[in-house]
Specification:
CATH class: Alpha Beta
CATH topology: Beta-Lactamase
Oligomer: single chain
Strand content: 25-35%
CATH architecture: 2-Layer Sandwich
Structural class: alpha+beta
Helix content: 25-40%
Number of helices: 5
Radius of gyration: 15 Å
Strand order of the largest sheet: 2-1-5-4-3
Order of helices and strands: HEEHHHHEEE
Shape: globular
Length: 118
């Protein structure tokens, strides 16, 4: 098993954080209850919302996709398939919709079901 010391782990975490904040793709981390709990700077720019506004929202506040009429069914599909790619639209803060491609990845961390949406 690979051992990583605390300094190396800190370095890796800083690089990961820098990468997430500086990529051009929007990243939304959501949980099984549709709560958005982490976003990157691109998500804020693209949606027109501040980070604080976005983390108070649910997925369906931004995306009324036909895939989400029953979130539980969608979540179970994602959990089963681990990755789903589809086209959709998000609602901008100014009231208009913009086209997006979503790559939903299922991740389980600390016994909490989460999804990274790019």
């Amino acid at each position: 098993m690979l051992k990583i010391d605390r300094q190396e782990l800190t370095k890796q975490n800083l690089l990961s954080h820098f990468t997430m904040e500086n990529i051009h793709e929007a990243v939304f981390w959501v949980d099984s209850d549709q709560n958005i709990f982490l976003v990157n700077e691109a998500a804020c720019r693209m949606s027109g919302y501040s980070r604080e506004e976005l983390i108070r929202k649910k997925v369906t506040d931004l995306n009324s996709s036909a895939l989400f009429p029953d979130w539980t069914v969608f979540w179970e599909r994602l959990r089963s398939e681990k990755k789903i790619v589809f086209d959709s639209q998000h609602l901008h803060k100014e009231g208009y919709y913009y086209d997006i491609e979503i790559t939903g990845n299922y991740i389980e961390a600390e016994a909490k079901n989460i999804r990274a949406q790019l």
